[in-house]
Amino acid sequence: MSFHIKTDFPGGNACALEMERHGDTAHIAFTPDPHGGPEKLWFNLKIVRTAEDAPSTIALLLKHADSMLGGDQPQYLRPAIRYAEKDWERLQAPEITEKADGQFDICWQIAAPQSWAQVALCFPYGQDELETLANDTGNYWQRDVIGIGQRGAPLVRFANDYGHAEHPRPGLYLIARQHSGETPGSWVLDGFLRRIAALREAAPLIWAVPFADPDGVRCGDYGKDQFPYDLNRAWSQPAMRHEVLVLQKDIQRWSRRCQPALALDFHAPGGCENDGIYCFLPEAETHSGRYPQLHECIAHIEKTLTPLFASSHFERVPRYKSRWETPNFLGFMPQTHQISCVTFEVPYAMCGEKVLLRADYREAGARIATAIAAVIGQSS
């Protein structure tokens, strides 16, 4: 064939690869690799040109979309694409064709690359993007390795202040990528941390772990319900994942060095959800009275995200069926540390009819940071 498919790079993921040539069009089929978990969704592959007489067009075919988490409305999928030496953009809506047996083919027509092209479910966010964040914010963030992942990758924490017990400063503890393929959460966290850096001394104390599953991020795992244990269902005591044990120790350090206000967790929902950003809160009885300004803060965040980004059903309580009985981060923080917690769910592609670009994700994160800083500043 005239093209080679690569996934052996940080964050790469695709399998069941097939290539055929039909005239001036190359048909390239793939599906996400579940990497040992029951759920699959994340994909990230490179198409490398290997022949001068390669076809000029590629029909990029996504197979088995109905077995991707939330893949039941593929018309809302808008993967990200970039060509060599060019920036990322979004693909248009796919062509959807029903096969004779009732399965569906999801297809995008793209220009064949002169050298290579990369296609991913959403804009990837890995170590390079994290380095860009650190460089763009100067020396504002102190980076420390607080432990390792279960396969040996460093767990890195960003902090704008180490705090101290004598004069505690209002504090937030943030994590993202408990499910390692949920890159929209990373882009929103990126915008959040950039806005905090701009606020400087007016910002609360922030400790943030951008990659809670650094090995999964590196290996291109999706991570939802990943075996041997979903990281976001491993928050029992004792912890069921080593990363959670490391994070629990760090949370203890943080809580002694600030006036704990909130914990935030950045995720992404099913692959085709398009009704906007929303948040999960624990059951009312588990956080009532922990942080009196919690609902004022949530209301302020919703207002700042409306109308561009917020779901019309913004504040929710998670009552969906889980494979796990052990606590998640959302429940662990109020139950164990009496600290209110909020989980943000950020769509992979669209808020209503709005197709999300990296600048949109960062803007949403900046708005969340501004709203929280304003409420915490008033209450401290």
Report what the structure shows:
The protein is α+β, with helices and mostly antiparallel strands. The chain has helices at residues 127-136, 183-199, 214-219, 242-256, 284-287, 294-305, 329-337, 358-379; strands at 3-6, 15-22, 25-31, 44-49, 57-62, 80-83, 89-90, 95-98, 104-111, 116-120, 142-148, 154-159, 170-176, 205-209, 259-267, 277-280, 310-316, 340-345, 350-351, 354-355. It has an eight-stranded mixed β-sheet, with helices on both faces. The radius of gyration is 21 Å and the shape is elongated. The chain folds into two domains: 3-120, Immunoglobulin-like (Sandwich), CATH 2.60.40; 127-379, 3-Layer(aba) Sandwich (Aminopeptidase). Strand 13, helix 2 and strand 14 form a beta-alpha-beta unit.
Number of helices: 8
Quick one: biggest sheet? 8 strands, mixed
Q: Could you tell me how far the N terminus lies from the C terminus, measured between alpha carbons in angstroms?
A: 64 Å
- What is the typical, i.e. mean, pLDDT? 94
**Rg:** 21 Å
Shape verdict: elongated
The CATH architecture of the largest domain comes to 3-Layer(aba) Sandwich
Fraction of residues in helix: 25-40%
Please give the order of strands in the largest beta sheet: 11-12-14-13-15-18-16-17
How many domains would you count in the coordinates?
A: 2
